Amino acid sequence: MNIRVGNGYDIHRLVPGRPLILGGQTLEHPGGLGLDGHSDADVLVHAIMDALLGALSLGDIGKYFPPTDPKWKGADSLVLLEQVMGLVRERGWSVVNVDSVVIAERPKLKPHIEAMRAAIAERMGLDPQQVGVKATTNEKLGAEGREEGISCQAVALLTKP
Ligand code: MG
């Protein structure tokens, strides 16, 4: 069987005056913080993209969407995800499933998880059942625990018939 696994990781800083976008959803942070970055800084979608690219040893998202390129300023990460899926499909691969965990102290992500799964699945051409999104706090430990940033880890399993 032709299968490949990939992992992805991302972290972005929490700062005032930026939107908080996770899995394509704009959330309210109780401290008025959002994620800083060149694109929309959607760490969840970025980690999933890196997992997909990693599974096929295609490098990382910085190679395809460099933060130095003004073209990607404020980019909707779900659109970038569609482009990464194009790279996967044109090589004859399809996604079995992806799974992810967002590490954020606040806000509570549970009410938004289903919307995130649906949005990601739609852009990937998958069923939401194939897209795992989980959330955890960092028990107030480390950068995520101090609300200096939000990080995400993801894995992707790909198959080629
Ligand atoms: Mg990123």
Q: What is the tally of helical segments?
A: 5
Distance between the termini: 8 Å
Main sheet specs:
5 strands, mixed
Fourth CATH level, the homologous superfamily: 2-C-methyl-D-erythritol 2,4-cyclodiphosphate synthase
- Proper CATH architecture: 2-Layer Sandwich
The topology string of helices and strands comes to: EEEEHHHEHEHE
Spatial strand arrangement across the major sheet: 4-1-7-5-6
The unreliable regions are none
Please characterize this protein's 3D structure:
The protein is of the alpha+beta class and 161 residues long. The protein has a single domain (2-160), classed as 60s Ribosomal Protein L30, Chain: A (2-Layer Sandwich). The protein has five helices and seven strands. The protein has helices at residues 43-55, 61-64, 77-90, 113-124, 142-145; strands at 2-16, 20-22, 25-27, 33-35, 94-103, 131-136, 149-160. A five-stranded mixed sheet has the order 4-1-7-5-6. A two-stranded antiparallel ribbon has the order 2-3. Helix 1 (43-55) runs parallel beside helix 3 and helix 3 crosses helix 4 (113-124). The model has no long low-confidence stretch (mean pLDDT 97). The chain binds magnesium ion. Magnesium ion binds at residues 10, 12, 37, 43, 46.
Architecture blueprint of SSEs:
Elements: E1 2-16, E2 20-22, E3 25-27, E4 33-35, H1 43-55, H2 61-64, H3 77-90, E5 94-103, H4 113-124, E6 131-136, H5 142-145, E7 149-160
Parallel strand pairs: 5-6
Antiparallel strand pairs: 1-4, 1-7, 2-3, 5-7
The chain binds magnesium ion.
Magnesium ion binds next to strand 1 and helix 1.
